[in-house]
Every structure is written in structure tokens, then in C-alpha cells.
Specification:
Layout (H helix, E strand, L loop, with lengths): L2 H12 L6 E4 L5 E4 L5 E3 L12 E6 L7 E4 L5 E5 L4 E5 L8 E5 L5 E7 L5 H13 L6 E10 L2 E12 L2 E12 L2 E10 H15 L2 E3 L2
Parallel strand pairs: 4-10
Antiparallel strand pairs: 1-2, 2-3, 5-6, 6-14, 7-8, 8-9, 9-13, 10-11, 11-12, 12-13
Length: 210
């Protein structure tokens, strides 16, 4: 798989472009229609919000993360390891501030910020529903609250399919009176286990700047 393919697919997904569609059968059952003419039933189990667990471990920036990438909109920054990650101002997705890429692999990152305070529970639902616009089978596979450099964040791992590519989002969601941050990493589902450590080290660089 070419790197650009997954990058474009996931950026399009974030931008809420539809590639698959939902439909209702004559008997009232909701199904997902895919581009390759296959289909599956819609599973609504993950749409019921259960109590989100809290991870009691304290997460902090990695010592190797020596470069502070600052937001131009909010008082937040991301400590990154410049030996592992390259970054640039977002060009493909205008809703994002920065796009990142692991220098030696098929792992990508994106930072989206907005000056609106959104409760984390609502942000969870928004992220899921927006993703389903382009990947209707998107499901939350893991979720928990974490304390990262003193900030309460929501970790979400979501898996979905777009244009036949199975991908995973693994990201932190943070909100305060100053605004909201979606700090997301993504790769293909078969690579997530291999890259989880890289995801964690990058995401744990999220800090609030005084």
C-alpha cells in the first residue's frame, strides 16, 4: 500500500466526504452499502454511550520529545521527537492546523483545534458521527479518560473502512474554556498494534501552555 493512499483516505474521512452509504431494506433494517457492491447490517451497539472508564496511570511527555509544536489558535502545544516525526501546516485538510508523518513508516497524525468548548462526552459523539459520514461501519474499539501532563483527555480508538481500506484512528480529545483539541494518529488496522507505542509517545506530548 502506498503511503499517500492511506493519508488521503483518512484526511477525506476527517473532512466528512461520503464514500459509502446507508440504506433501509423493505423490512426496515438498516444496512451499509459499499462501493464494491457488498453490504452489511448496521450495528448500533456502539451508539449506546456506556460509562467511560478512567485510566489511573499518569501519562507524561517522552524525554526524547524535544521540539514544541505550538498551536496558532489555542494555548496548547505538542512536544514531538523530531528524529521520528516530520510535520507541516495542514494543506490537504483545511480544518486541521498541522499534519504529521512518522519518518520511517505508514503512521500519520493530525491536530485540529477550534475555539469552542465542547464537553468530552459530546465530543466523543461528534467524532464518531462525523467519521460515520464517510465510514458508516466506524466503531469505537477502545475509550478511556486519561491524565496527560496534568490534562484530562479522552482516548478513542476507532476502526472503520473507506474505499476498501481498513483504517484505525487512535487519538486524544481535550477541551477547556479556551477551546477544543482533536489530536489524532491514524494508520491501517493491520499496522496499529505495531505502531501503538509510536502513537502513545506522540500523543503524550500534548500540553497546555501558560
Amino acid at each position: 500500500m502506498k503511503k499517500i493512499s492511506l493519508l488521503i483516505i483518512c484526511l477525506i474521512t476527517i473532512s466528512v466526504t461520503k464514500a459509502q452509504q446507508k440504506a433501509v431494506t423493505e423490512t426496515g433494517i438498516e444496512v451499509i452499502l459499499y462501493d464494491d457492491a457488498t453490504w452489511q447490517y448496521v450495528d448500533h451497539k456502539d451508539e449506546k454511550v456506556s460509562e467511560i472508564p478512567t485510566n489511573r496511570k499518569k501519562f507524561n511527555k517522552d524525554d526524547e520529545s524535544s521540539f514544541l509544536l505550538k498551536s496558532n489558535k489555542l494555548n496548547i502545544g505538542i512536544w514531538i521527537n523530531p528524529k521520528l516525526w516530520s510535520f507541516k501546516k495542514a494543506t490537504t485538510n483545511t480544518e486541521a492546523e498541522y499534519e504529521l508523518q512518522l519518518k520511517y513508516g505508514d503512521l500519520y497524525g493530525m491536530i485540529l483545534t477550534e475555539k469552542v468548548e465542547i464537553p468530552l462526552e459530546a465530543l466523543r459523539s461528534i467524532a464518531l458521527e462525523n467519521g460515520k459520514e464517510s465510514a458508516p461501519d466506524l466503531k469505537i474499539m477502545k475509550e478511556e479518560y486519561r491524565t496527560v501532563n496534568g490534562l484530562k483527555v479522552l482516548l478513542l480508538q476507532m476502526n472503520g473502512t473507506m474505499q476498501g481500506i481498513k483504517f484505525s484512528y487512535y487519538g486524544y480529545y481535550f477541551t477547556s474554556v479556551n477551546g477544543t483539541v482533536q489530536f489524532i494518529t491514524y494508520t491501517s488496522q493491520n499496522l496499529l498494534k505495531e505502531y501503538t507505542k509510536h502513537c502513545e509517545l506522540l500523543l503524550n506530548g500534548l500540553v497546555e501552555i501558560d
